[in-house]
Write a structure and sequence with these properties.
The chain is mostly beta strands. The chain folds into three domains: 58 residues, no CATH class; 92 residues, Immunoglobulin-like (Sandwich), CATH 2.60.40; 30 residues, no CATH class. It has one helix and 17 strands.
Length: 193
């Protein structure tokens, strides 16, 4: 038995498999979104006996497969966080990107990561990545670039450190280089805020 599929209403066909005629075959659907799909079964020995399904069906592109970050998270530069997705939605590698301005511009994290469902991302330090409340992640299927997903909402990349300087005399200063304040290391108490 020869099994083929078409994504263009039967104008051209792609081989699925040549398999024994058992009456059933488990098919891994390819990353080829289309609204004009046909399956054809024919005799594998070269006979002209064949049949196709009675009506077209769809292969839809997967959606909503990025699972983290998906909005509201607080990530810090120079820390590693897992970007995660549902890896059952497609089979090929993925491209990962980030935006610091709600999707106006994108920067590549990696052009090709294995479709494992997770990628450990070391958030770059400033000035590459500056604090923002408009960060997004985008994931794209490497084989079919139309298959992509973006964080459902923005997340935050926050300052790596957030502290104040306090002299032993009780004066409070926002975080700043000590030399600019005229302070010496022995004069300081660092208090987390």
């Amino acid at each position: 038995m020869k099994l083929e599929y078409s994504i263009d209403s039967g104008n051209t066909y792609n081989l699925i498999a040549t398999t024994p005629n058992t009456g059933a075959y488990s098919w891994t659907v390819p990353n080829t979104p289309s609204t004009k799909v046909f399956i054809k079964a024919s005799n594998a020995t070269g006979s002209t006996i064949s049949d196709v399904n009675n009506a077209v069906f769809k292969i839809e592109k997967p959606t909503n497969f990025l699972t983290s970050p998906n909005g509201g998270e607080n990530w810090r530069p120079l820390n590693t966080y897992n970007i995660t997705w549902d890896n059952t939605k497609f089979i090929s590698s993925v491209k990962l990107e980030y935006s610091l301005n709600n999707g106006t511009t994108w920067t590549t994290i990696t052009n090709s990561a294995s479709n494992s469902g997770t990628y450990a991302w070391l958030v770059p330090a400033p000035p590459t990545v500056m604090p923002t409340n408009q960060a997004l992640i985008r994931i794209t299927n490497v084989t079919v670039s139309a298959i992509m997903d973006t964080s459902n909402a923005t997340f935050n990349i926050i300052d790596r450190f957030n502290f104040q300087l306090q002299t032993q005399r009780g004066h409070m200063y926002p975080a700043a280089p000590w030399e600019l304040l005229g302070l010496h290391q022995m004069d300081l108490i660092i208090a987390a805020v």
